[in-house]
Amino acid sequence: MIGVAAAAVAMSHGQWAAAAPAADARTLPAVGTTWCYSVGEGHVTPMTLRAVHGGVASYDVGPAAAPMKLDEDVSTYTTPNPARHGERRLLVFPLKPGKQWEDRFDETVTASIGRGWAWHYRYRAVASSEVIGTEKRQVGAGTYDTFVIVRTTSWTKSDPGTTDATLRDMGMHCDDPACKVSGYSKEVSWYAPSIGRVVLRANVQSGFEPSMTDASADETLKNAGSLVTELVGYGDDATCKAAQPPRFATVPSAPGFGFALWPNNAWEFHMARDIARE
User: Fold this and answer.
1) 85-131, pLDDT tens digit by residue?
2) Which among 150, 182, 148, 153 is positioned nearest to 88, based on CA atoms?
3) Which domain of life is it from (predicted)?
4) What is the pTM (predicted TM-score) of this model?
5) CA–CA–CA angle 126, 270, 65 (5° rounding)
6) Residue 1 reports pLDDT greater than 80
7) Is residue 4 part of a domain?
8) For residue 14, is pLDDT > 60?
């Protein structure tokens, strides 16, 4: 029987520390498997695996009537981007506590405003990642043995533009001739090797570096500025009708420190609010 002292050591922020799960490489389940992700009550998005070929996994994301097609590099958990210079790696296998890596990359990314109006900007980043430990983590979809990965990023976004006539008609403009915004992001991910995907992720950003580095993983989950994505269903239910209520998922209730508070039609505002790039 585990002693009281040992139990206290095993406990970390209310979660039992897990024995290290096996993660020499990433293994995906069968084609047709669906992961159901939520960013808050009433917001559930299906993600269904459609194919795996040449180290790339292809998914349908969203409603079956009009899914978005998404490709993902299996080994790095990253969407391929032909416009990327350098490396962007959210995972580097084999995973083990204490493992660290750094990415430097420069790419053009696409985004949307409101009703799917398309625009783009240049994203330059330096990111440092570390596997800080393992944890048995309970989410809406169940309880999983996970690796906890913290990723901090220093970034600059610039050169926004659009080919969407509606956005041009809205008077989108740059507040400053440089037309760029810089900041820091911190992302904490709980990756479950048994199902090949992250089951919980908290992403928060700020204009000030100290606020990115001081908080613990659980404090990042509770931060009012965090976008928290949670697995609430998993299996063969492509509709996600059987998804469970989220325990943590939420959209930010407060903007990141150092950025504009109120929505406007400046490109700088929208670049700063496009927070989920990491």
Assistant:
1) 999 999 999 999 999 999 999 999 988 876 778 899 999 999 999 99
2) 153
3) Bacteria
4) 0.86
5) 100
6) no
7) no
8) no
| Residue 6 belongs to a domain | no
Note whether residue 278 is domain-resident.
no
Does residue 13 fall inside a structural domain?
no
Identify which of 181, 161, 187 has the alpha carbon closest to the alpha carbon of residue 88. Answer: 187
- Between CA 204 and CA 276 the distance in angstroms is 9
Which helix (H) or strand (E) element contains residue 168? Answer: helix 165-169
138: amino acid identity, one letter: Q
Structural domain that includes position 84: 20-273
Question: What whole-number distance in Å separates Cα of residue 63 and Cα of residue 82?
Answer: 27
Residue 111: per-residue pLDDT: 86
For the chain, the domain total comes to 1
Query: Which CATH number do you get for residue 269?
Result: 2.40.360
Distance of alpha carbon 250 from alpha carbon 266, whole angstroms: 26
Residue 263 identity = P
Token pair 């998993």 is at which residue? Answer: 234
Kindly give the pairing relationship between strand 197-206 and strand 180-192. Answer: antiparallel
257-264: long-range contacts at Cβ-Cβ below 8 A with a sequence spacing of 24 or more?
Answer: 257/206, 257/207, 257/208, 257/211, 257/225, 258/183, 258/206, 258/207, 258/208, 259/181, 259/183, 259/205, 259/207
Residue carrying the six token digits 């430990």: 133
The answer to whether 189 and 201 are in contact (CB under 8 A) is yes
CA distance 52 to 70: 12
Token pair recorded at residue 164: 């969407």
